[in-house]
Write a structure and sequence with these properties.
Distance between the termini: 83 Å
Structural class: mainly beta
Number of strands: 11
Strand content: 25-35%
Mean pLDDT: 74
Order of helices and strands: HEEEEEEEEEEE
Shape: elongated
Radius of gyration: 35 Å
Low-confidence stretches: 6-17, 19-27, 69-78
């Protein structure tokens, strides 16, 4: 019997039992047939975080570090400032993380370090101490660091140690110079020349994975007639994200 006759005979048998013939399935012949489909769509938001340091990095990235301290007091040009956290033990560079990123609330984590330093009147020191700020920032538009340098005041004394663009053994004042330690691209620097709030660092890109490093060096000059006293003032560094237009 031919294949055609066999097929007709099979259909006749099915019909005799009152059962309708089903179309022949083609699943085996179609290797790309989709029997079911499911899709998971993931919307993941990476929150912007800009901070001095990153405690959650491995290894952690220190945000605020200082020059090594000297234990030799009252030496004009070799005396280095001794840095301490206010009311606590001396600062240990590897332990200080400065501001820790807090993406959920964008909360600032301010830190306060105090430098203790001595100098004779009629002398100058172009490096009494330095602070290195390490910025970790994933904002594509970059960030800015604003610096506000207060005049150092004795309280009632009107002859203060002012934040100035220059200072010498004959002109009382203190200076702040900033350097881009990594020579990153898209970075501009502006030196502090007075007590106004200045954008001393502008970077128009996200930081490197290990952070961007900026060192602020403090110089000082004291005129011979400067009154003997302890002068105090704050230099405040504020890191902000550039959100773009």
């Amino acid at each position: 019997m031919s294949k055609t006759n066999k097929a007709i005979a099979a259909l006749s048998i099915v019909a005799s039992f009152g059962v309708a013939a089903a179309p022949m399935a083609t699943f085996a012949a179609d290797a790309t047939y989709n029997s079911d489909i499911h899709t998971d769509r993931l919307n993941v938001t990476v929150l912007p975080t800009c901070a001095f340091g990153a405690a959650n990095a491995n290894p952690a990235i220190a945000g605020v570090t200082h020059n090594a301290a000297s234990n030799t007091p009252l030496v004009n040009t070799t005396n280095a400032a001794t840095w301490t956290t206010t009311g606590e033990s001396p600062v240990v560079a590897d332990d200080m993380l400065g501001m820790t990123p807090d993406a959920a609330e964008q909360t600032e984590h301010p830190s306060l370090h105090t430098a203790t330093y001595s100098i004779y009147a009629g002398t100058a020191d172009d490096n009494m101490g330095s602070t290195t700020l390490t910025v970790v920032c994933n904002q594509n538009n970059g960030y800015k660091i604003f610096t506000q340098a207060a005049n150092l005041s004795e309280g009632t004394e009107t002859i203060n140690i002012v934040a100035a663009g220059n200072a010498s053994a004959s002109a009382t004042g203190y200076t702040i110079t900033v350097a881009n330690d990594d020579s990153r691209e898209s970075v501009t620097l502006a030196q502090v020349t007075d007590a106004t709030k200045l954008a001393t660092v502008t970077r128009n890109a996200a930081s490197a994975a290990t952070g961007d490093h900026y060192t602020y060096t403090y110089g000082i000059g004291v005129a011979p007639s400067q009154k003997a006293a302890t002068y105090t003032g704050d230099v405040v560094y504020t890191l902000v994200q550039q959100l773009g237009s």
